[in-house]
Amino acid sequence: MLMRNDHFREFDRIAQRLMENSRPTAVAMDAYRDGEEFVIHFDLPGVNRESIDLEVERNVLTVRAERAELRKEDLELLVNERQTGSFTRQVFLGDTLDTERIRANYADGVLTLRIPVAEQSRARKITVDHSTPDQDRTVIPGQEKSAIRS
Length: 150
Fold this sequence. Notes:
Strand content: 25-35%
Oligomer: single chain
CATH architecture of the domain at 25-122: Sandwich
Radius of gyration: 28 Å
Strand order of the largest sheet: 1-6-5-4
Shape: elongated
CATH class of the domain at 25-122: Mainly Beta
Number of helices: 1
């Protein structure tokens, strides 16, 4: 059986909930690069997949979700520490990312986004040709010396 015994903590919790109701709660996240894509994990435990809303506008990714409160008339809450209500997080995406091909997956309370690096922004090798110094010079008529074209 669970028992409440810390009355001061309960007052702190009530005050915190009153302040939180005025603004959406931020969503914890991890982000990293994995090869040619960026991966972002958002913690959304207990959130119904249908309540998750993703939107990209001008390279700003907005994640919104909502977790419903436990509401039953015959329910007596003993401990109520899990946050409920609206959750939101905005992430600024660089111009080098392909926002048209974002993939999203929600499993085990974690929303995972995979954002590929845009093709034109990917690192690529440039080959260096080898030639003798005189091969790249072109003589232009009317000039005393040869000019080098680049």
